[in-house]
Amino acid sequence: MQTTHMATPVLEVAHLEKVYGALGNVTRALNDVSFTVNRGEFVGIMGASGSGKSTLLNCVSTIDSATSGTIRINGQDVTRMKQAKLSQFRREELGFIFQDSNLLDTLTARENIALPLTIARTNSAEISTRVQDVAARLSISQVLGKYPYQMSGGQQQRVAAARALVTDPTMIMADEPTGALDSKSARLLLESLEALNRRLRATVLMVTHDSFAASYTSRVLFIRDGKIFTELRRGDTDRREFFDRIMEVVAMMGGEGSDAL
Amino acid sequence: MLCKLAWGNVRRAGRDYLVYLLTLTLGVTVFYAFNTISMQVDIAGIDEEGLAQVMGSMLGDLTYFLAGVMAFLMVYANNFIMKRRKKEFGLYQVLGMGRGRVATIMALETVIVSVVAFVAGIVLGVGLSQLMTFFTASLFKTQIANFHFFFSVHAFNLTLACMLVMFVLTLLLNLRAVRRTKLIELMGAERRNESIKTRNPWIAIAIFAVGVVLVGVAYYRLLRDGFPLTATDSKLQEAMNQFGITTAMVTVGTFALFWGLSGMLIKLLQSLRGVYWRGLNMFTVRQLAAKVNTVCFSMGVIAMLLFLAITSVTCGMSIANVMNENLERYNPVDVSQTYVYYTPDTLDFYKESFNPSEADRMVLADSTVDLYSAWHGDTWHGDRKGKSADNNDEIGKKVNIADVAGEHVQIDSYLSYPLGGSNPSVIPSEMCKTMGEKLPKAFGGSNADAMGLFVTPASQYNKLRQMMGEEPVHIGRDQYLLTCDMGGELVDLYTKYMAGGHALTLGGHTLKPAADKSDEDTAAIANSAMGSNPGTVVVADELLSQLNLQPYSSSLLVNYKQGMDTTEADESIKYTVLDNLLVDGKESGSWGTFITRSEMYTQAAQMNGLISYLAIYIGFVLVVACAAILSIQQLSNVADGSRSYRVLAQIGCDDRQIRHSVMAQQAVFFLFPLALGLAHSFVALKVIIELVSIFGNMSIGGTVGLTCAIFLAAYGGYFLVTYLMSTGMVQAAIATRYSE
User: What is each CA distance from A89 to A28, A38, A83, B76, B701, in whole angstroms?
Assistant: First the structure.
């Protein structure tokens, strides 16, 4: 723990296992994974394709169910929750940003951002102010009236980020958020995430295979073959230096890694 | 190898193919079943002459229509499949498979599905046709004497041929699609954001308003003008043009209404902020708007088709009902024979234009003929089906009505002007004017005024009443009674006239009503299918003889002798060529219709059956076609939107809310066209009922209610199945994890 006020755990994963298939054809996607994320942390998860990083995110985000082990978010064990409770939990505690922005084509940016609030039956006056707020923070106020197809990829991703943030979630889950973006848009998005984390103390969990994206985080977990291979903390180093250290680990992780990572 | 791939594809894409399969199966079933109608008629024991041919030819035409509708459906369903499968066919090509082989796989898939659909359809069709036999029998009011399982080779061949044509058609379309489509289109673009065609909401609202106004004005015009059927020749063209304008208005209005619907809905709901920004409402409305834009045309078509279906069924069956219900009143006796006198108009017509030489043999009658003594002649030598061989000895046999007649009465109808005159003194428009009423639509611009009402002596009227077991009505020298057996508006008019105490003037005599009600049950002046008496003034015999009116027609109404078998009696006099009635070697008129009651009953039952059959046939096909189109559209919408539903689930929307949204969207698509179609139908039916009321009070109920219930069940069933399949698709989409 680098600073004491961040020490409250938001996410506690313990002995998580995920097994696919059955009878002699078993794939162990996650094998005894344990880690903790504290409030206000910006954590990256890196790994090659097939390493289990997306499975991990899916389990944590309650979209997929674990075979064994526990996942506690804000003290609640999500592996024991019923389906109906899970929807509510996702709605109230989590925010999602996907590789492709996953905005709804038929809704304007404003409506896309408002969607999690309307689902939760927030009153319309409050919806309006909160959407304006979050849009201003991500500098997308000028595109609120547009449809997704009228926006650039970067704008779409920031609208998606705004949708993830508008409910003030306990934790933001980002799955390869820069995957579909050009480098300039990617940088803009990462800077917004970093700013959210720094200024608003938002907890972010980001899966990526891009070392550059990972260098914006405060801590990176490396996954290989379903296990946590190692972990890197940024500490007080600047981003360039952190990026070099990440690259070292990536190189160390394996010969086949360079193309996948 | 290719076969295996194709078979695997069909099984894997089962859900997509299910819609196609169902549509195809349904098409085959309906097609086969309706083409077995002639066999059903046989088995149901309906062996009336000519009926099978009439129905056969009418159904033959309808079969083409049905085939057309089904072809449209199948092409539609096929496009749905192709859209789903494009990417896979693209993938094969990317992997290096030639277009020819891709086409082969696709053709094989189509073959598999078509064969399965054909077999299933025929099996269901055979089952359905057995059931329909009972339905047919009940419609034609017969009993099934010996029911046995039947299979129609004719219908089978027809269905097979039709299927083959459609199969080739869809195959060609698909091959063209594969050949034409670029690989990049086959493969890509699935994940790209769909561009939304947005319409300026204000324009949409304006168009919607225009649609509503057009439909409203069209309703008003239809209610005011009615159908152009009742117009006289001179005004017919004008009336037809006006009706054409009304039709165009309602059609354009319907499409405009659907075109503007989405924009209007969005604006409306957005103005209700609490509603719009609540739950998935916003999403639901936006999804609707996005789709309504592309399907507004088909929604319009469906609304119009449903309108046609509802109207044709309700109207056809109600007319048939009315005719059946009033049959007893229309046919008071076992047999009737009419004799029509020449009037001055007829003579003029013959002399001046038609046949001057014929006119020399014609003379105006100055008194009526006694039909009872005049009714005799020889048995007719004709092609009596199945009878000629046995009854040859009877040909030329002398027949006299007295051989069979028991109670009988002659009813003479005079025109309301004296011999040799031409202007009737009792005419409906004058009567309406006296009461300050509008002329009933049933008269329309017809020539009721030119002819005026008939006049009949009270003694004859009362004799008929006695024959029917009713008390005679006393009609004094200065009194009159109005009778009419056509029910509805006409009887209401006459009853109102008498109840109001209005006087009639006949040959300078002013007459007062003898009763305050027109009894339509004893008002017939001959047997008929749809009424014989549009309006008659019954007056005292002394007055009538004094007035010296122009005879128009006489009818002999006969009941057979007590204990006589009706069928035998009918047979014995049916085929008689009556001797001419000559007065001084000249004719005063000609023999008119000879109608037995049993003949009318049989005809009415057949007519009823035929109309019901056709109405149901057309209606059912239209309803099923509409429902199937809607169903396919909705399923493809859901499939297109599966990504959206996955996103919704991920951001924490629970299943219930998603299901509600799907339900709301589909309800709009199914119910809006239905609602508009029903509204159109109500207005049209209101006018039709007014028009048909000349034949009696048309009531919509009974069979019509049942039929409509079946239709609604079919439509609702499609809705339900679509909804269930959609929620299944949504569940599957949600369950698909976003992959690594």
Answer: 27, 19, 10, 42, 55
